[in-house]
Amino acid sequence: MPRWPLLSRLPLTLRGVGTLVLAGVCGALAQRFGIAELAYVGALLAAAVVVSAATLYLLPSSARVTRAFSPDVAATGSEVRVRLTVEIRASLPSSQARWRDAVPDGVIPASVVDSAPEGMLPATGSAMAGPSRVEVDYAVRAERRGLRRVGPLALVTTDPFGFTRRRRTVGDTSPLVIVPEIVDLDELHDLPGDAGGSTRSVTDRMGQGADNLIPRTYAPGDSMRRIHWRASAHRDELMVRQEEQETTPEAVVVLDRGAARWSPAAGRAAGADPAFETAVSACVSATARLVREGYLVTVIDADGAVLCDPIEGADTAGVEHLAVALATITARRDLPLDALARLFSGIAAGPVIVVTGGLAAADVVALAPVPHHSTMPILLLVSEAQEVEAREVVAATADTGWRVGALTAGGDVAAAWSDALASRETRSVHRAAS
Q: Are strands 174-179 and 73-75 parallel, antiparallel or unpaired?
């Protein structure tokens, strides 16, 4: 709820208090000196205050507010314009009204620190001419990820004479979705082609597909219409057209939500743990980079649970949908990283990006098999550990084949990504048995 100065919470304005004081003085003087006219003046002043209060509190009046945000979905650290449309319907005209909109934790006014947005509404007419509609706007800054509820609006209206004031809450709260910041990361085009990307496609010989045709040896059941006569004459055996179908390269981004690797605050509410916030931003940023590079990206938890629908290459709307899906995500019950190793066991995957927190020695061992199944294994490590301890973890994971980028809470995600890309030479896929 918006907090007002103490004087603004009193039902009488300074003018009203002064009028009552003057009425009392007139009454006292009338009694002391026997001047009847002063008694009439005092009674009239007191009656004016009472009647004004009655018109403000007893006569029917209503107000409602609508609230709109621009943009509708805000990125962490960005500015948001809030537009209020206030509609007031009152029996009698009123003087200026003061408004104050409540802002939640995680959202701060862009102009005044530690103060709710407030201002003055112009004087309004009576309901005989229809409701009075006023629009005001203000700016706030989205500080922390989550679903933040802005409002309600508090109005302080006064009677036409300005003797009394009425404070009331108008409308309900409005949800503002604050998504993680998407950081622009370095491109992958300078890496060798076995990592895939927008300039390469992997191929699956399916027998049907694109127009790219290559010959293969005839097999029983092949249609005679698919015989490649030139290749058959060259090879001196029947050859048929085998079509080569182009498919989109795939990548996997893992956001490790295991509670053991984050502070307890990460599991309580979105935006509560700075380290986890950095990790969520890194997850979305890495996904955005891979999507721009042409990958079909799947975002999963450490246990393989899918956090969002797979995002096609160049699908920027899919990245925005992922950001919204992660707007309220928190850490969850402890998830052992062994499940991740089992998930990639026995397969040859494309790029695998794992975003995790403070790793113990057992976690390093659990993650060790994964790089042998990926063309580009990247580990983004967000940790609050001491510098020496953090270097030891980075060295241990790098020794198992990971490209490691380490950063602290609120650190430079782009720099950590660049460090990871430059940390090791790109390796071919190591096919291992499950």
A: parallel
Which residues are 100's β-sheet partners? Answer: 118, 154
What is the phi/psi pair of residue 299, to 5°? -110, 125
Could you tell me which of 274, 369, 362, 346 has the C-alpha nearest to residue 354? 369
408 compared with 391, residue with greater pLDDT: 408
Q: Is residue 397 over pLDDT 50? A: yes
Q: Which pTM does this prediction carry?
A: 0.79
Which residues neighbour 35 within 8 Å (Cβ) at sequence distance 6 or greater?
A: 29
Give 409: exposed, middle or buried? Use CB within 10 Å, 0-12, 13-18, 19+: middle
Instruction: Answer for the pair 367, 402: CB distance below 8 angstroms, yes or no.
Output: yes
Burial class (CB in 10 A: 0-12, 13-18, 19+), 87: middle
Q: Which residues of 95-133 are buried (b: 16+ CB within 10 A; e: fewer)?
A: bebbbbbbbbebbbbeeeeeebbbeebeebeebeeeebe
Give the pair of three-digit tokens for residue 322. 């992922």
Q: What is the pLDDT of residues 25-42, one digit of tens each?
A: 999 999 888 888 899 999
